[in-house]
Amino acid sequence: MTQTSVDVPQAPPAPRLPIGPLLALSSAAFLAIMTEALPAGILPAVSRSLSVSEAAAGQIVTIYAVGSVLGAVPLTAASVGWNRRRVLLTALAGFVLTNTVVAFSTGYSLTMSARFVNGVAAGMLWSLMAGYAQRLVRPEQRGRATAIALAGTPVALSVGVPVGTFAAGLVGWRWTLGAISALTLLLIAWVVAGVPDRPGQARQGRASLAGAIARPGVVPVLATALAFVLAHNVLYTYMAPFLAGTRPGSRVDTVLLAFGVSSLISIWLTGVLIDRHLRPLVLGSIVLFTVAATTLAVFSGLAWVVYVAVAAWGFAFGGAAPLLQTAAAEAGGDDVVDVIQSMIVTTWNLGIGAGAILGGILLSRAGPTALAWVPAGLLTVSLGIALSARTHAFPTLQRRATRQPAP
């Protein structure tokens, strides 16, 4: 008796992620964070060059955030019909222009004006990033694509800004900004040559801003993000005085290095797990950050505890941006993804600005320990919102599967 074999058809392999284009987007995130955060490390040199006080020089960071807050939503609404690569190139061109102006400017008013426009370009860029990354991949790969596209953020904070600050000390801050402009020009060439274009939103398919906000799940995601980012910036902005007040001798640079390294590990792990475990990752990040903040408040007199707690905080924060942006995109839907991302950008920058203000008030009136206790309270609020929002904002895997469009 002869046996015959039957060929069983094999499922086609899953398509590979477009790593090159996603890394180009990640590079844009890296340069945006470098542009935003580098001035904080070179304020004394900037103040001497512009003949203003360090407090006045510090406002070039504030005006950048203001530009992002004011520019994100209206510019996204105005450009939502543009092809995505056109929007990206416009934002990058804005970075080249404004960074070059700041590098050559000798007047405070001109520098502030350029930094405001710089922030506007950043708002446009950040509103685009997640949606563009998700348009480059299949639906089941969107979370991973977002994580890769936003990976430039922790890399810039943990490696780029310290290296940029060191370089500014060697060659001067103006040359360093000029180098960022040159790198942005190279990135523009990369985008033109290697990043596929994607269409914007057709006019007849667009939802209004009010309609986007009314989508179930959008407001809980925004509220969760605001409380989380506010808690982060209350403590992160004033890390130096916090350490000086509670653990004399703790070095800010090494503590922040621990934060940065754990953030890099977190963004990698988030990229691996986000598409199947969004809700557990969000809840785990908030819980871990809450434990870390509480630990810093109670045990900050022990140096090793400070390092462990800050590393845990960095691990919780590293994947926060892709997690929250993916949740917002899914809550809003494909037809409003760019508008929703602009709202996340606005919320994020509001958290940065409000965190700096609230932290300053707490430091002056309540002392450094409050810089950890208040974030713990804010994170408890964030956790409560995320726990209750299990249907639309941060759904379970089963519910997410029923909402995914067919590949």
Structural description of this entry:
The model has no long low-confidence stretch (mean pLDDT 83). Helix 3 (54-79) packs across helix 5 and helix 3 (54-79) runs antiparallel to helix 16 (337-365). 78% of the residues lie in helices and 0% in strands. 50% of the residues are buried. It is mainly α. The chain has 18 helices and no strands.
Summary tags:
407 residues; mainly alpha; globular
Strand content: under 5%
Tell how many strands the DSSP assignment holds.
0
Average pLDDT rating: 83
C-alpha geometry: globular
Rg: 22 Å
Biggest β-sheet description: none
Secondary-structure-derived class: mainly alpha
SSE series: HHHHHHHHHHHHHHHHHH
How helical, in percent, are the residues?
over 70%
Taking the alpha carbons of the first and last residues, their distance comes to 44 Å
Give the uncertain stretches in residue-range form.
Answer: none
Q: Count the helices. How many?
A: 18
